[in-house]
Specification:
single chain, alpha+beta, 2 domains, five-stranded mixed beta sheet, 18 helices, globular
Length: about 425
């Protein structure tokens, strides 16, 4: 018998993981479980009276993974993993790009197909020694307390997917009724962000204890309109999640709003602008003005978090609001530009490096071939527009760089050059 054959591998199945794991919550987990005291509507026992807001979001998320796997979402292969991979990372890992992994939702199944849990060891002492050796050798990594997985599989996950996996592991340890919110809800729903993901798990509820090293608790009232059922737990709806994140800052909120509204997401947008406006209008916290500005500024056309950041900066620098994802007919195909100012016949694009480096986005081409193809595309576009501006991440970190690019390409602005 191999040294690790005594370990039962825990394989997640859709609709079973959180429910089954919650029933196995260890002694003392009551301190970590956050009961949600909601009552089903009269005459409908056992059913939550979730309004159209949550129902719409639930339907959109439910078809996300299925459509992406079947290839029926209508997205390009670069966005949908060529239709050859599922939304699980593990033995079935295919040529799915990290960009694709960063756009998926993990509501139905966790990112990892298999994990090893210490509490499932059949020979704890022997398995502890073997696991320690594998950790030291870098063969496996610790996902969360008592949970491990292959280092290769973990390395393929985007940072958002890694946080989503940690949320699933936290759900497995908690008693039923926890409400996952803020960044934890965002990761599970597939709402990405700029910068590192937090190391803590966000939960919300009334009368709950203080935060710990691993759990960040938000004391507040939660209503049925704010949540979606998630196994034996709950998760804040896409619109409520955006509102929670928008309360932390305008840029953070716009990125979350654009992600939730993104119309080209496999399976469709997570919410609508009218639903988001309804939730923002009902918010009465200290950041209510910022939340409403975010809801009004959110758009469904931003394909990435950096495009959302570009939109915020373009507005801040006084440039006109652009049209997003304008389609242009090329000689042998068509192209979409990230930004388009029709009155000035000016196109703009955030130029990410993934198209030249990510094997899944290269689709068998060399980086040099991808670079030449992008140059040919740009040349064709320039023959149809008056100006084509392109920028990369440093121009977003230093606003005057983006200002200079757009002004030098003759796009008018109502503001002066920023100092830095």
């Amino acid at each position: 018998m191999g040294r690790r054959s005594a370990t039962r591998r825990v394989v997640h199945r859709a609709g079973k993981s959180t429910a089954g794991a919650a029933a196995r919550a260890p002694r003392g987990a009551a301190r970590r479980g956050i009961p949600l005291r909601l009552s089903p509507p009269p005459g409908r026992p056992g059913r939550w009276d979730l309004p159209q807001v949550s129902a719409f979001a639930a339907v959109r998320i439910a078809v996300d993974a299925a459509n992406c796997v079947s290839g029926s979402c209508g997205s390009s292969p670069a966005r949908c993993g060529d239709g050859q991979s599922t939304d699980l990372v593990g033995p079935r890992l295919g040529p799915m790009s990290r960009a694709t992994l960063s756009r998926m939702s993990w509501l139905r199944e966790p990112p990892l197909a298999e994990v090893e849990r210490r509490r499932d060891d059949l020979a704890p002492s022997a398995q502890h020694r073997a696991r320690h050796r594998d950790l030291t050798a870098g063969k496996i990594v610790r996902v969360s307390r008592g949970t491990y997985t292959s280092a290769a599989h973990w390395g393929w996950l985007s940072e958002m997917a890694k946080h989503a996996q940690r949320v699933w592991e936290a759900a497995a340890r908690m008693l039923p009724g926890a409400v996952f919110s803020h960044d934890s809800a965002a990761a599970v729903l597939g709402i990405d962000r700029i910068g590192p993901w937090p190391t803590t798990i966000d939960v919300s509820g009334e009368g709950i204890g203080g935060s710990s090293g691993r759990i960040r608790r938000h004391r507040r009232t939660i209503s049925s309109e704010d949540v979606l059922p998630w196994g034996r737990h709950f998760i804040t709806s896409p619109a409520r999640t955006v509102v929670d994140l928008a309360a932390a800052g305008f840029l953070t909120g716009v990125i979350a709003a654009d992600q939730a509204l993104w119309s080209r997401r496999p399976g469709g947008a997570l919410t609508t602008q009218s639903i988001l406006a309804t939730f923002a209008g009902a918010y009465n916290g200290r950041a209510s003005a910022t939340v409403r500005r975010v809801a009004a500024f959110g758009r469904p056309g931003a394909d990435s978090v950096r495009e959302s950041q570009s939109r915020v900066l373009i507005a801040h620098l006084g440039f006109p609001e652009p049209v997003l994802q304008q389609r242009f007919q090329l000689q042998s195909s068509y192209a979409y530009t990230d930004f388009w100012w029709p009155e000035h016949r000016h196109a703009g694009e955030f130029d990410g490096a993934g198209k030249y480096l990510d094997p899944a986005l290269l689709r068998g081409r060399t980086p040099q071939q991808a670079l030449l193809a992008e140059k040919d595309r740009g040349d064709e576009l320039r023959r149809q527009v008056r100006a084509l501006s392109r920028w990369r991440t440093p121009s977003l970190d230093q606003p005057r760089l983006l200002y200079d690019i757009l002004v030098n390409d003759s796009l008018p602005t109502r503001r002066g050059r920023p100092g830095r």
